[in-house]
User: Fold these one by one.
Assistant:
Number 1:
Amino acid sequence: MSGFSSAPAKMLPSDAPPPPVPAPPQPVDWQRLHPASPFLNAIIIASRAWPVFLVALINGGSPLVIAALLLLAASVMLALAFVRYLRFDYRLEGTTLVVRSGVFVRTTRTIPADRVQQVTRNEKLRHRLLGVAEVLVEVAGAGTEPDVSLSVVAQHEAERIRVRLHDARRAVGAAPPAPDRIAFEQPNDALLRWAAISSPLFMLPAAGAVIGALGDAVDIERAWGWLPDGSQLWFISVAGLLGLAGATAINVIRFYELRLVQTDDNLRLEYGLLTHRRLELPTDRVQAIVTKRSPAGRLSRTVGLTAHNASSGGDATNSYLPAVPLTEQPSLIGLLFPNVDISASIEGHPRPALRRSVFRWTRPVVLIVGIVWIALRTSWVPLLFLWLLPAGALGIRAWRVLGHGENDDVVLARRGAITDQTVAVRKDRVQSASVYANWFQRRLSLATMQIEVAQPLGRVVVRDMDATEAVVLATTLAEQARSERPGDQPNKHQEQQDPLEAGDLAPGDHGGGSQDHRGEHPPDSHSVEIGE
């Protein structure tokens, strides 16, 4: 008896089911700002017009008419803000932020994550009451283009945008991000000491001395005549205390709970009580650190630190820490400048620079006293020449502070008389260097070196160096800058001259003026430009 086998038939390769087809990527929906955005923007715009209505009210305008005009203006502003709200949307496409805006002219802006310089999250008091935040995306190399502002979005959406853009900047295959940790937290007592001492009201004694010196030129009795007899001192004391408390409160509120948070390979700066700010601080883009020690800092035993990022400009690229305790300064600089050695010794400048420094500080006193003498012709005016003594002392101290230094990683420049400032610039961030000297500097064998870096810092000026040393250092910096750009060729117009003959008369610097200028050389001076 024949039968059939019950074994399953072998399936041919052509009969196999096709592999599953991956689903096409879902399109990302365009998103609008928070519905509260037009109302907040309209209020901000309308509030700027209050001086006009105040002047109209003071000049006798009808309160009813002014209120009607104010309501009409607010309605127009709200309508315009609402139209802009409807015509503004954005979306995140992978690692790219795309923003569309414009009422009559539609503009689409595409921002790759690798061009994002900083993502700042601002939460002012009005934002926190409504649960929203403002996101400012700063773009590197944007030129004249404005940064992207998303004002406003929900707080969770602001955090999502910040995290997405931050993650997209990581290199492919990077390790998973480490958990955030607080790397530095500004002590509140140090902030309070700095805020109180840095109040401008400490200039009141100096103002009182000036008023007293004016004598007959100011009718003090007429100025205080509206106060009852004997109450002037109480009024000054109470006003001074209230002003001191107010100025202290403003600084404390602005920088309250300032901290640096370590986020994987970057830092995030957070601070503020009423307006809470969060600024991304990529350490690989920090090009310079400025350390300032003011009289308030000396009394409060703190220093101020500013980290400058390379960017197209804007205040968002400057991360300011106003009250860093002296004991924590080295570790904080190590966080901002990882793997960078800034322990270079600073050398003072030659003694001929002392003459220029004293002249630079005493010249304004001579000019002011001369103008006052011509205007008043009174017998007490020559007494103002006594101000030459403190001015000369400040000139001497400025020369003692003046100095520079370098090592393999950074160039240091120090200056100041009342407030000492030290700038540490990474050598691999230098774009070019120039040396110039006016007629007075050439006679003293001095020169000024200008180091060009990316905006917003722009440049660092080292004043009144030894001329030969200035050219040698500038040449070294320029060669290193060219080595960082191997494809660049030196400019055919660049030429190196004798350092004692190289010079540039700075606009307004006739024997000691400011070198706060760029790129303009008078026809009767010489300069050596080294670098780009």
Number 2:
Amino acid sequence: MMHVRSLTLRALAALGVFTAAAVLAVASVAPADAQRRSQQNQGEDDPSQNRQMSSAIGEQVLRAREAIDADQFREAVNILNEVSRRDMTPYERSIVLRMRGAGHYQLDDNRRAIDDFLAAIATNALVRDEVITLRTQIGQLMLISDRINEGIQQLEMAMAAGAELTVPLARMMSQAYVQAERYQDGLRYAEFFYNNERNKSEGDYNLMQYYYNQLGRIQDELRVVREMLNAYPASRRSWQNLRALYARLDQEENSFETAKLMYLNGLLEEENEIVGMVAYYSHFNNPYRGAIILEREINSGRVQPTERHLTLLSNLWRQADEFERSIAPLEQLNRIRPSGETALKIAEARFQMRQWSQAEQILTQALDRGGLSNAETGRAWELLGSVRYNQDRIQPAIAAYREATRFPTSRRNADGWIRFINGQIQGAEMRAVQREQVLIDECRLTLEAERRSIVLTGAVDEDGRVRFTEIPSRCEPYFNLFGEQIREAGMSDEEAAELQRERAAQAAAASGQG
């Protein structure tokens, strides 16, 4: 968006500041009855009291007038050059100089035209209203000749002498002060023409806004922009200026709403404007809408599928928890510039979609490819651990989490997962031991009851030991045929075998001693 301060003086000129065709067109700035009063009050206003012209001079002036009427301006200037070398009264010289100045102007020789008009005033033969008109014309000529401050001075002198401040003159003065970068001095003229011009053009609004912008009067600037939008609701530039003003006032939400209105009315034409508006949707917690717009604009071709834009689109979908829709721009991005970072984002999306095997494959590729930052590498190992855990691959999951603990940003989470999984494992083992102990206790009670029955019937061996004909299958891992416990709860097979060897050795030792 173009900021108001980026306007150049050349750009202001394009708004219609000064054109050669307008020169001498503001003669009406003098009082409306100036010429009539000049004629009626000659005796009062004529400084020389002598406004007569000799026949010799008059004939040459008439010839020059006829040449001018025939558009033979060079001929007219030559005639008046010859006449100017004669002796003349101040009044006659003022006539010759003014006419020759007009001829120079028609020949696009503004410098000589200005010199002649100034010389005409210097004769002191002109009445006040003539001086006012001539200074106004000189001022305009100086302005279009880039003699800005001199032109302003002539126009100020015309008004000081009694020229009426009309809307056209006020506009001209305000434009001149802009070119001179004298904003405070020109403000009164800008406000006069702005407040009194009934049919304002877009350029009029822009000029008034420019003044307030340069003077730091942002609330007045905002008022003018709003007034312009009321008059020209389809003005794209005014909408842009309104957005910029809201941004300068830190009114981001108003700036966003303005951008949305521009988009809905087809006034956002540039790619960067559309992308800038879309980014606001993320900022104001509506990423889904932003993603919909950006995807549509990329598909239409108004926004190019660059790395930056595809990244923004995928982030918007991810922010909106639309992980499946984030995969397409991420995969397109990965084709443009394959990277571990992009692969990690794809894996995260697959993880959110509970696609464990695909996520694991992509994570493995990302880690193998490299190019990840330390934080991203830690995140990839942590995510890989979670993927494996969700596939009930506990030990590979712990191994991945241990890799993640090597990186500061993922260490805490990874340690937490390892403790959690180990706790689950220990809990499962403890519960298994408890179930095993219950079974052992139940088997012992069962065997003791049967032992008592066997003893009563006298079915014992020569050592007085009861020998069971069979042991219930559920009790076989824990008791032998004599009802002796051969295994504790929670023992592995190796530990149980070791226990049996120890007991056999003890029995052998006891037998030897006996």
Number 3:
Amino acid sequence: MNQRGPHISRHELERHGIGNVAAAHWNYRRPALYEESVRRGEAQIAEGGALIAMTGVHTGRSPNDKYIVREPSSEHDIWWGDVNRPISRDVFNDIHGRVAAYLQGKEVFVQDCHAGADESYRLPIRVVSELAWHSLFARNLFITPADEHLADHEPAFTIVQVPGFKARPETDGTNSETVVLLDFARRLVLIGGTAYAGECKKSVFTIMNYLMPAQGVLPMHCSVSVGEDGAPAVFFGLSGTGKTTLSADPTRMLLGDDEHGWSQDGLFNFEGGCYAKVIRLSASAEPAIHATTRMFGTVLENVVMDPDTHVLDLDDGSHTENTRGAYPLASIPNASPTGVSGHPTNIVMLTADAFGVLPPIARLTPEQAIYHFLSGYTAKVAGTERGLGREPQATFSTCFGAPFMPRRPTTYARLLRERIERTGARCWLVNTGWTGGPYGTGERMAIGHTRALLGAALEGKLDGVPCSHDNPFGLAVPEHCPDVPDSVLDARSTWADKQAYDEQARDLVGRFHENFTQFSREVDKGVQAAAPMAA
């Protein structure tokens, strides 16, 4: 095999069933991957130095094309259903053989990396791709081992992404020609038919979400920042809730923006980079993230630029609303150099309530925190996803990341409750959505108010403040907060039509109850009693 690169592992590609390739490019650094990406016509260089790549038909994940091999070592631990669909070992092996045949005679790019900043739980991984820019993406997003360790790097899991490979739905039994297949026994992921790089990132997250609980670590879909006093805060939240924006505070150190573990010793980032949405990114609102779009080394997916000047247009969503930037954490000035911190003192669960009935902030009991963690509520509005109508749509994504959770949600909830009770972390529900009415009638919560509320909560300024429980959700809502009008804190008082508020609130309470029936038999009476009040 023709092998090139500065650091070639002695654990060769043949162990993954890959052989007879035209060339294997090992562990190239960013400049070399730029050269290869441009030379091969995969990407272009924008003004400022970022690399722009187009992902074709797939500009986001394909959740209906994800499968896990049903096999003895893991089948009793998997939460089988619409999220984790089973596929047989025979079908996986057949597709694996066709992937290997597809790669024969082609060039491949290999990056040996780690997932997990805490060395006690670090997972060695390998990313094999047919596109050079995918190799740069992996180098940006994951943790790069020291050069002297690469020759002996032995991956515990390998991800093979081949956008040019197509499955055969009629014989494979897959949903489409696109596949994301995970085999925990063979420790192998096959991604075919999509160039969207986020599939690789989230496949590694899924692996960590499977492995970590068995080691006593709670894996979390969250961002983490650390205050000047050294106290970390965890921010759970789905897309559109402000998870990235609110954690990117220049007065706090960023541990990571998306995936973390909480062990007996504290928090640690799973990644070495960030994967941020950049559509309509503002230099004034998010200066640190905006600056990365003008940096050498950043990979921009599906971002529009002028064909002559190569100047970026971050406001143009003609390719997709899901434009993305992938960059190493070192590109953020206030990022943690270690990716490791102590236990959090605050846990924030973010929701963008488009119905406008949840309060802007509420203190949660441990039981309420588990209820809302298992619920994972937010709401989507027109423009956030294709096919959404004019009315908001309630979304419940358990653990704030259902598509990436292979185990039963209560597995993660039990770990979270144990950590909360052991550390005494304060828990908060923060609504970054609408106030004064639902989407279309009310207004989006003022970001200044949200920042003031969040700052007061993290700094302990809301401790001892009287709370009102006079709301349909049984939440403890502070009656006062510095720099925020008292009237903003009471969601009902912001509505001109109080009867309309009551009706909308009853409707949302009913949605919470209906969704939670799937977990009610697996939680204790305290968590059951933490549900919003009956309509």
Number 4:
Amino acid sequence: MPVPILSKEALIPGRTSRLVLHAPHIAARALPGNFVILRLDERGERIPLTIADTDPEAGTVTIVYLVMGKTTAALEQLSTGGSILDLCGPLGRPTHIVKTGTVVCLGGGTGIAAMHHIAKGHHRAGNHVISVIGARSRDLLLYHSELSAFCPEVAVSTDDGSFGRKGIVTDLLRELLQQRDDVREVIAVGPVPMMEAVVETVRPFGVPTTVSLNSIMVDGIGMCGACRVSVGGTTKFTCVDGPEFDGFQVDFAELRRRLAAFKDMEKLSYDRYCTCLGDTPPKKEKPRSIRVPMPCRPAAERVKDFGEVAQGYSPGLAAQEAGRCLQCKKPACVAGCPVEVPIPQFIKAVADGRPAEAYELIKRANSLPAVCGRVCPQESQCEGRCILNAKGNPIAVGRLERYAADAWLASSACRELLRGGQREFAEDALKVACIGSGPASLTAAGYLAGRGVAVTVFEALHEPGGVLVYGIPEFRLPKKDVVAVELDVLKRAGVRFLTNQVGGRSFTVAGLFEQGFRAVFIGVGAGLPSFLNVPGENLIGVFSANEYLTRANLGRAYAFPNYDTPPFNGRQVTVFGGGNVAMDAARTALRMGAEKVDIVYRRTTAELPARHEEVEHAVEEGVAFTMLSAPLRFLGDAGGRLEAVELQRMQLGDPDASGRRSPVPVAGDIFTLRTDLAIIAVGTGANPVLTESVPGLKLNRRGYIETDANGETSIPDVFAGGDIVSGAATVILAMGAGLSAAKVIAGRLGV
């Protein structure tokens, strides 16, 4: 028999509505925690909805739904006076409610409405009910007034801070549990990620926690098993054993997978329904393509030269990729960026065809956008935090950053800027010195120069740029078209570069203060190569990656004899290590004419620390990988030249203190690999040339500079950042350290 709709109210227009249905047979028996199954018409799907309220005397049942599929979209087309074909219930086990004391009822999204019914039940049982509710913003918050009518305490959080506390519900919950010890139970109703987060928040406090699950259902009466979920290692049916379970026992990972089982089919049905209405799906459900690939030169072509591999997005591809961005109100990607680039804003500008505006937005936080767009490990930082990463298709933030920077660098505005003269500062201007010209120093210099500080950068080599020039190959980071232009922008901003200035040799830190510099930033990098410490390491043909890459990059040995620095070309090259530097060395060796290049690594491919993109490019270009192997000794001929390396086969043992499985030797499994050029890329150490010349500068046991949270060293007004503090890390982390220190320096100088 059709069920009449007595009233319909839009709680969030177009997204969430409340229906009051005339169903006296259900209203008479329904208890908090029960749900109903409804079907709209003869062709309709059965869907479960938790009851938000009942009025047994009036014979009404209230349900609240979110428009997210065909059935709920069709519900949205109904109005007061209409009807629903089928309504089955009450179903499921009701909430276990006894008088126990203080109970916390927590809800998110439309789950707040279902939680309202449970909270009311606890209130009627005489419990002290504390409600905790949250939403992205005030206009998306549900049932605040309804809960306030009977709850003595209603705590509210919004992501944007537009109502209640800025933050998320688990923040409020944690503080509440820290402040009081009388909470007897926590009940959570809402999206699966929220409920899982609630469980993990409560776990340290040991308070019993109940979650109400929203599994996929067909019949809702235990016939099909579609709603099964693992609880405490045992399979349960949500419709008959639940929907409420001990949150500490629920296998949330399995639940998430099962909820997604029909996602593609549901989306197809939904999109077709919206098309039939002459409408389009709401923005939240907009079909989104997979991540737009980066155009690259063919491997067979690029391996013959040092031209850039990745070719960058065209305006069309950039707009297509940028259009995938969800424009989150609380963007986790920004929190994942060490220099806090306003990522959603610049991506929106790219999507709208405004690359110059996008560049300006990036430049406010990042002094080297064209560099970062190419070499930063976005997959473990901004892209790693992207909400779309859960599906393996995060927004290509780095590629879009590169596009915006390249578009600006190629524009007439950029050319006009570079034609101008260098900014000049007054004689009495505030002065700051940066030692080293790598990413950390360049970032600090750019930030300070933009605030009217006269910055002088002291570089030990003959070209500024640090690791950007000597460490990263041309095919990944073009020097003339990218690095030199970025440096020119800094020069036009007034940054002065002095090359061939070796800190601790050409000048001292104390001497800089005597020259009138108000602060000094040390960003000299680590720079001291690490070796394997095995016999034969000094044979001719064994190189550190530092030496090999500096010859090729800074010395342009790849263009010998047009450049004078000679290369050491091997036919059978072996690279030891698994990081980005190892990939750079291996791919450089191929371009230098090697017939075969092997990367030897003592763990498996899964543990390679290099960026996935770099490993992928290396494989495409023909680099071979010898995994689970470690060098025992290098073997040479009578003339002291490298001929081979003896390797020990390894296997992964138990995890070490960091959680990584340690490689251990396989007894008796030793083999030899022919090689005439070995490149050791196993990290670097702290170079003491500068640090040993600064009395009172505190170092740690490994020789790196110690700093406080502001980047300040043991010497007042002397700051440090980058690899000389952290050890070998990434370009963007060094930039983040430089930016943090520069902000403190600027504050001290009053600019």
